[in-house]
Amino acid sequence: TGTGTIANFVAKQAKQVIGVEYVEAAIEDAKLNSQLNGIENTLFYAGDMKDILNDEFMATHPKPDLIITDPPRAGMDEKVIQMLLRIAAPVIVYVSCNPATQARDLGLLAELYQVDLVQPVDMFPQTYHVENVVRLSRSVAVDVLNARERSCNPLVIPYKLRPCRQTPKSANYGSKVLCDDSDESENENIIVNKKQLSTIFNS
């Protein structure tokens, strides 16, 4: 979180923001920046992310709706990535000063997340360096399968999340694409069983 620049910037849109930074002096500055700007819903912790972000930490703090990560050039430690997959926040924003290590980390996060948006920012003109921001969202397929695991009944998939139909009237469960056909009611649902779900998302 550095000196709290991002944390303090987003604090007005959040109930609470928690920042973690390796450099203890930067955390003190982050707390001071919150105080100077009248921000009272931030918490800051000094230490290595891989050591702080653990089960004990998550047990004493609310599960996040959004995670913003801005690691050093080496990228995220694999322990942190595995913890992010376990936390399974709906959205992750990954800010990187090294797209190469970012790409590596995104490959590991692909187990649960899909890339929605990539925005490079040229903060270092006349050099090959670039800051890159990626927005990730939890995969719809994973959410649907998780919903199935919580129920013993056949899963009802909302119409907007069903597989696209190759023709208006014939469902094709082999497709991985999800869409909303405009020729049908938005309230329509499709009931599928576990075998069909496997076909939809694993074929």
Overview of the molecule:
The chain has 203 residues and is of the alpha/beta class. Helix content is 33%, strand content 22%. It has 8 helices and 8 strands; from the N terminus they run αβαβααβαβαββαββα. The protein has helices spanning 5-10, 24-36, 49-52, 55-59, 78-87, 99-109, 140-149, 194-202; strands at 17-21, 42-46, 66-69, 91-96, 113-121, 131-138, 155-158, 189-192. The strands form 3 sheets. Strands 3-4-6-5 form a 4-stranded mixed β-sheet. The protein is globular.
Summary?
This protein has 203 residues and is α/β, with parallel strands linked by helices. Helices cover 33% and strands 22% of the residues.
Chain-averaged pLDDT:
78
Low-pLDDT ranges: 152-203
Number of strands: 8
Order of SSEs, N→C? HEHEHHEHEHEEHEEH
Classify the helix fraction into a percent range.
25-40%
Distance between the termini: 40 Å
Strand order in space, largest sheet: 3-4-6-5
Taking all Cα atoms into account, the compactness measure Rg is 21 Å
Based on helices, strands and strand pairing, what is the structural class? alpha/beta
Taking the sheet with the most strands, its summary is:
4 strands, mixed
Number of helices: 8
Global shape:
globular
Strand proportion, as a percent range, falls in 15-25%
